[in-house]
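Subgroup meeting minutes
Present: P.N., E.W., G.H.
Scribe: E.W.

1. P.N. recapped why we're keeping a running log of single-chain structure predictions: easier to compare across weeks, and new members can see raw inputs and outputs side by side.
2. G.H. added today's entry (213 aa).
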Amino acid sequence: MTDAKTEILARIRGALHDTPAPAPAERAYRRASERPREEVLEMLEDRLVDYKASVHHETPESLPGRIAELLGSSARYVVPEGLDRSWLPEESGMRRAIVDPNDARAASALGVRELNAVDAVVTSSTVSCAETGTIFLTGRPDEGRRAISLVPDHHICVVPRDSVVELIPEALALVEPTAPVTMISGPSATSDIELERVEGVHGPRRLDVILLG
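Output recorded in log:
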């Protein structure tokens, strides 16, 4: 077996010995935006709405009230350990937040069954690309592990306005290369064999994006 493998590899090397070196990749695409800031924000909102997400504009003062409104009658919702608590509405007898540790290996981390029993999740975000209408989550303490943004049926995602860029190269430059990246462009959706849209199969059925500025 070893002799056969050696022979095969030797023949491959012999066949490729005069292969020219690959030409360097041409990177003529735009790597930095020249659009006005407000135009970039409008582009992101247009893309997200087109993907069936709901978009809201809030300030730090109005944010807790908006989140309370979006949660509605949700009895329990999960938040990552590092989320800014000033963003959250006051707890009442009808509603309370469940804090999930950022480390999925922690003994107290919520499992899939526990996450499936909560109504919603509130997270922050790393960066958003307006050109593609994509929000990047990278597992930071205010975003949490991937499971908490995929299992609950309703995701409320806070996007600081200063974290919005126009282009993918700009977005990737702000992402830690080794981070676990989850990209979101609207609620989870797919189509069946008859091209009927089905939502909530691979993630939240409902996505509310709050542009915070």
